[in-house]
Amino acid sequence: MRYLPTGEWMQKADSYTINEIGLPSIVLMERAALAMVDIMEQEQLDLSKTLVFCGSGNNGGDGFAIARLLKNRGYDTKAVFVGREASMSEDCKRQRQIAENSGVLVVTTVDQEEYTTIVDAVFGVGLNREITGDYLDVIRKMNALKGAKAAVDIPSGVCSATGKVLGAAFEAELTVTFQCEKLGCILHPGHLYAGKTVTVDIGIDAGIFKNEDTLCYTFTKKDLPDLLPPRKPNSHKGTYGKVLMITGSKGMAGAAYLSAKAAYTSGAGLVQIYTSEDNRVVLQQLLPEAIISTYTDFDEEKLKKFLSWADVVGIGCGLGQNRVSEQILKTTLTEVKVPCVVDADGLNLLSCHLELLKEQDTPMILTPHMKEMSGLLGCSVAELAQERFEKVKAFTGKYGVVCVLKDARTIVVKRNHQIFVNTAGNSSMAKAGSGDVLAGVISGLLAQHMDTYEAAACGVYLHACGGDEAKAAKGSYSVLAEDLIAGIACCTKKTEECMDR
What we know:
By secondary structure, this protein is α/β, with parallel strands linked by helices. Helices cover 43% and strands 15% of the residues. It is built from 19 helices and 18 strands. The protein has an eleven-stranded mixed β-sheet, sandwiched between helices. Helix 2 (25-42) crosses helix 3 and helix 18 (452-474) packs across helix 19 (481-500). It is elongated and about 85 Å long. The two termini are 21 Å apart.
């Protein structure tokens, strides 16, 4: 896993490294500058004529050091100071003086020359206010200049906590970030301004992040062997759990099929689909491995019998929002005694019966997209987009559930836990049925005795990795939801092969 701190948390880690560990800030600055120059060379940016924009804080100090190192390597380099003299940090003043002593020309206005590379070292991760006035003009001028664009730690104007553009932001092609990638460069739209992001270790101690539940983190492919539940040589289908998928109203057999197949593909031992009678024949043909049980009207005793059979229940995919669907949902959430995943129509029905969550003692995972979450919260999608972390944390704190908020950057939130932010996946996954597959994957992992939060986070990441495999096979446009399941199978197979080496 890797942490995704905000600027505030990164500044705390920086301060801890300097004041508690004893590593001087000027040393960190030199390491940052050296890493920036090395990466720009490795990325083959044309540095023959480089202009470095420097602010008055420590990010500006990095910039002056970068200009000096570039000049020492033989590049025609100029630094333009766009900050305020009275606001300069001590390290920034020191680096400016060293740069001038080393022959770097430091100016305060931009001339009409053409440059091959523009380096942004104006604002650091601490920026949290709208950019106005002269600084706004500076950002626009930087973007208008020709040449490659490289940002130091974070593009100026991107909020490190939310990814929001604070008035205007530097449009980088390359961002070299120090110690940890910042959350704002992961979230949209900040991610679009960061370009290619390269993270370098400069010696900042990130140990203070370990026990802080307000921090975000993500996974990499290297984490998968430790995330997936183990398979035992001496086992049978019961070892890997029984999943009851309550899915698929009339005409919605596809949702039932995709979620059930995904549960099997993620490792569940046995899946039973409880669905409308109209779907029986098609599901028996599509997925003969599943047990197909059906209803024509609400049958409380029959439903209770199936609920007592299951180790995990998934409900909602294609369930519909009619009278029978509502009765099925209310009975399920009242009677279920095992972990339960609620998705799609189940969430829309639940938004009118939130009292069911207050009465619920069993582990529960909700998997809403932004519209469904806005219904659960009683706010607009726009309001949710502005404060998604705060609103979802408050919701999970109130009801004690795990929430998987699906979006371009899906997050997984549970009370007193760090927030998982998914960075895998791609736009090919924006297709009908993708959410059904995710609900099935999480249900399948839960059936293998995973903790609810861990199953949710692992399921989101595995689902996204399946999307990456599907895109590699079919391209961005042609991927269907069923291709995600094939991608998940490919991903788990590769993970197993790595584990066997």
